[in-house]
Amino acid sequence: MTSFQIRVPRPAIYFILLLCISLGACSTIETQSFLHKAHRGVYAFSAEDMERMQFYISREVLAHRITADGQTTADDVIVIPIKTRGKVLEAGPNWLRVSFNEGGTGSIFLASGKGEDSLYKFATETENGQLRRLEELPDQILLHEGNRYKIIHGVNAYLLIGQKDLKEIVAERSHLTGAKKKK
Predict the structure, then answer these.
(1) Domain edges within the chain
(2) Which pTM was predicted?
């Protein structure tokens, strides 16, 4: 049996390695959890500010539309993949409506409203008109556009914010430049 070696010049190996690293870096989106107090409150983000930011969902969400006959078909299944981009359509004092689909009506994400800082977690408007986090509901049913959906997984999904957008909006706030001493 004959074996052979392919000799690749060292500069070519470095170029290929550098190309792989830079392609990987381009495909990664730097995000962080979007917090009610530490981000929205501290920097006084308005609804208009948040409409200019790119949001993402923290984990995959899988939901089945609840049908009258109890059967689930492929048309009844909704998947929101992890880190799907979303945009804010409207904002309330502790909630955001975020669309993950062009032209969509959006889903509600609710901060806890309690004393601690809070993530904006996947929520729904209940039949009596209250906003509630899905993870707090015993049946974990999402009401959306007149349909009821059973959340199979992803009930505790929350919003992430793109770090680039966050930095750009914060940079628009007044920044003191410092004062020099007299000579």
Answers:
(1) 31-171
(2) 0.79
